[in-house]
Design goal:
InterPro entries: Peptidase_S1_PA (IPR009003), Peptidase_S1_PA_chymotrypsin (IPR043504), Peptidase_S1A (IPR001314), Trypsin_dom (IPR001254), TRYPSIN_HIS (IPR018114), TRYPSIN_SER (IPR033116). The protein is built from 2 helices and 15 strands. By secondary structure, it is mainly beta. It starts with a strand and ends with a helix. Bound molecules: 4-(aminomethyl)benzoic acid (4AZ).
Length: 286
């Protein structure tokens, strides 16, 4: 879509060029970023800007009647009442999950709009989840009440059924560790990583000396020399790509890996296209 260009000539003869973006219909469209100029940690990444990834969810765990809470995982907003996250993010004994939408700076500063918190009514863990292999590391969180979409709270789009993203450079976001065994950021981090073919990924793990099996339901992303990756705490968050129409689609959700950003050990994600029927069977989303 060509944007309308308005050129203003000021009295000082300086020329200001302003692009007027097509209005973003965030109440009806998935995958749009109302707060980004352009319209049409994570290890080795950079801090995002407020509202840049409006489907990013912070999954918190609350124990002892809410007396103790901790940031547990990332998540992805799929609709006004469903968040997808990793199955290994399910709450511990006598604990429950809380989803925070529109979050950005965990220290509470640097935010121009308030975040929206919802208790999780129901956790649907994939019945095939295997903690030993991380097979089917997905869970859907049904929110206690629906959220209102806003400029900083928008659901992501799902990919087409057989869409293949191999070789494309995707973005992963989260509040996870800035390096393996390191600290956590306060501002949401983003990093770009290429999607790796499964057989190439399998070879990489073998090269690194790991016997791990790369299932067809997995998707790998990262570099042979490491450097950029998701890490502990990013789990459940989005790996995503911009479609030609400028809207964003969910390629995968952060699942696991061996260490973070280490050579020949790319990050492992749950492949969204593989799980579309499962996601649809619970949420109704096409
Ligand atoms: C984790 O522990 C984790 N390098 C998540 C992602 C990656 C590694 C570990 C990917 O949650």
């Amino acid at each position: 879509m060509p944007a309308t260009v308005a050129t203003t000539i000021t009295t000082t003869t300086a020329i200001t060029t302003t692009t007027t973006p097509k209005p973003v219909d965030y109440k009806n469209e998935c995958g749009v970023r109302p707060l980004m100029q352009k319209y049409g940690r994570i290890v080795g990444g950079k801090g995002a800007t407020f509202g840049a990834w409006p489907w990013q969810v912070l999954v918190r765990e609350s124990t002892w009647l809410g007396l103790f809470t901790k940031n547990k995982c990332g998540g992805v907003l799929l609709s006004n009442r469903y968040v997808v996250t990793a199955a290994h993010c399910q709450p511990g004994f006598l604990a429950n999950l809380v989803a925070v939408m529109g979050e950005f700076d965990l220290s509470g500063e640097l935010e121009s709009k308030r975040s929206i918190t919802r208790n999780v009514r129901r956790v649907v863990v994939h019945r095939g989840y295997d903690a030993a292999t991380f097979a089917n590391d997905l869970a859907l969180l049904e929110l206690e009440s629906p959220v209102q979409f806003d400029e900083h709270v928008v659901p992501i789009c799902l990919p087409r059924d057989n869409e293949d993203f191999t070789g494309r450079v995707a973005t992963v976001t989260g509040w996870g560790r800035l390096k393996y065994g390191g600290g956590v950021p306060s501002v949401l981090q983003e990093v770009q990583v290429p999607v790796i073919d499964n057989s190439v990924c399998q070879e990489m793990f073998l090269t690194a000396g790991h016997q791990k099996q790369i299932l067809s339901s997995f998707l790998c992303a990262g570099y042979a020399n490491g450097q950029k990756d998701s890490c502990e705490g990013d789990s459940g968050g989005p790996l995503m790509l911009e479609r030609p129409d400028g809207r964003w689609t969910l390629v995968g959700t952060v699942s696991h890996g061996i260490k973070c950003a280490a050579p020949y050990l790319p990050g492992v994600y749950m492949r969204t296209t593989y799980y579309k029927p499962w996601l649809k069977s619970i949420t109704g989303i096409k």
